[in-house]
Design a protein that fits this description.
457 residues; 7-stranded mixed sheet; binds pyridoxal-5'-phosphate; alpha/beta
């Protein structure tokens, strides 16, 4: 029987992050100032981020060394294991070989600490004492709470109020690591107070929570803002995933990989596994690279490439977006309910180096159950989109009579998502058909924003 787990020694954690911008065919579009519409410079970002992260945001160096202090914390769970999904392969009867990289072994249970640790380190080194952030489902907030604790920083998390009510254990996890967590909208910021005055019962949204965290950081010298996805430096920090997977596939005796998949919210775990393979593809390898998104929030498959913003306060970035007015239906993959996708991922899609597909939540939960019942691990609802994509890729290969090597990123476990599994098992989960006129309505909010070069007419 061939091996099941491919593990690297601690000394084999990648020593540098891989920056695809050094090799990508199209240079990134400049971020624009939300007020003036003009390209922004490092000075505009200085109130929000420390200089090291700003430099990484604009760097085109192919490799950026990982500081020893960051490696030291990553060592707590990295390298993460690569599994050959023997049991899933048997369950679905495929001739293909399926591998998954498991990021759920981190302290917070997902890939998010890969960047949280790096961000906390650079902020501490720049003399910041405190970080402010938003969280929806709680994965990002708990990752930053853990990372801040490692570097002696305070952490303030604005948690979308509905999630605050629905996911008390994620809140307790953050508090265990010492973070202060408030339901957003909160009375702690002008943005939050304004919304509470208009609607004391507001359930909150990711956009409101971002506004609060940005205001918090901008109004205090000792505080930076921290974002868990979308931005170039966040994607960069995640590339340890794909670099480890390249080595592990070699350990498994695979000389090439045919399909690489990840789920996409803002794009960071997908980029983490995919970008090193995009590098291989640019160098001539034939690899199909697939971004799997929810049909209820179809940013890459149905959103235009446009200048969009996260909350009307942050810089405008060129990305596939449904506009900041788009409020995705309440699907259980909370981490995929974001209206924009990282500029790097968006540009690679335009350049034809990756492709995107959308899946409904009930078919994703069916795939997650198939996975849990064969492989044992219960995937996060977000990750179930990649599981679904991988099973589909294996089916397509079987239908065409080929035997392929398929790799996907299992970005996190679903231990805090039992409510969602319960709803699925009880037959209470529904799919959402997103009407075209709802997308048109949301897109009108970004109609007046500048259009990026290269955007299809
Ligand atoms: C487990 C998991 N996977 C995926 C995502 C989506 O984010 P991203 O696209 O940045 O990887 C999230 C976001 O919270 C998450 O918690």
């Amino acid at each position: 029987m061939p091996d099941t787990k491919f593990v690297l020694h601690e000394s084999e954690i990648p020593r540098s992050w891989y920056n695809v911008l050094a090799e990508a065919p199209t240079p990134p579009q400049p971020p624009l100032h939300p007020g003036t519409g003009q390209p922004i410079g490092p000075d505009d970002l200085a109130p929000l981020f420390p200089i090291d992260l700003i430099l990484q945001e604009v760097s085109t160096d192919r490799e950026i060394p990982i500081p020893e202090e960051v490696l030291d914390v990553l060592r707590l769970w990295r390298p993460t294991p690569l599994y050959r999904a023997h049991r899933l392969e048997r369950a679905i009867g495929t001739r293909s070989r399926i591998y998954y990289k498991y990021e759920g072994v981190s302290p917070a249970g997902s890939h998010k600490p890969n960047t949280a640790v790096a961000q906390a380190f650079y902020n501490a080194r720049a003399g910041r004492r405190r970080l402010a952030t938003e969280t929806g489902a709680g994965q990002w907030g708990s990752s930053l709470a853990f990372a801040c604790r490692q570097f002696g920083l305070e952490c303030k998390v604005y948690m979308v109020r509905v999630s605050y009510g629905q996911k008390p254990y994620r809140r307790v996890m953050m508090e265990t690591w010492g973070a202060e967590v408030v339901p957003s909208p909160s009375p702690d910021t002008a943005a939050g107070r304004g919304i509470l005055e208009a609607d004391p019962e507001s359930p909150g949204s990711l956009g409101i929570a971002i506004s609060e965290a940005v205001e918090d950081a901008a109004s205090r010298d000792d505080t930076s803002y921290s974002l868990g996805s979308v931005l170039n430096h966040v994607l960069l920090h995640q590339t340890v995933i794909g670099q480890e997977a390249q080595r592990q596939l070699a350990l498994a005796g695979e000389r090439s990989v045919d399909v690489v998949l990840g789920c996409v919210g803002g794009g960071s775990n997908f980029a983490g596994i995919a970008l090193p393979f995009v590098g291989q593809k640019i160098a001539g390898d034939e690899i199909e690279i697939v971004a799997c998104e929810p049909a209820a929030c179809p940013t890459l498959t149905r959103g235009p490439f446009a200048y969009g913003d996260t909350a009307q306060l942050t810089p405008l970035v060129a990305m596939h977006t449904l506009g900041h007015d788009f409020v995705p239906p309440g699907i259980h993959a909370g981490g995929l309910r974001y209206h924009g996708v990282a500029p790097i991922v968006s540009q690679l899609l335009l350049d034809g180096l990756i492709r995107a597909e959308a899946h409904n939540q009930t078919e994703c939960f069916a795939a997650a159950l198939e996975f849990a019942r064969s492989e044992g691990i219960i995937p996060a609802p977000e990750s179930s989109h990649a599981v679904k994509g991988a099973i589909e890729a294996a089916r397509r290969a079987d239908e065409s009579g080929t035997e392929q090597v398929i790799l996907f990123n299992l970005s996190g476990h679903g231990h805090f998502d039992m409510g969602a599994y319960d709803a699925y098992l009880q037959g209470r989960l529904e799919d959402f058909e997103l009407p075209e006129d709802e997308i048109d309505r949301a897109l009108r909010a970004i109609e007046s924003l500048p259009k990026p070069a290269g955007a299809p007419a």
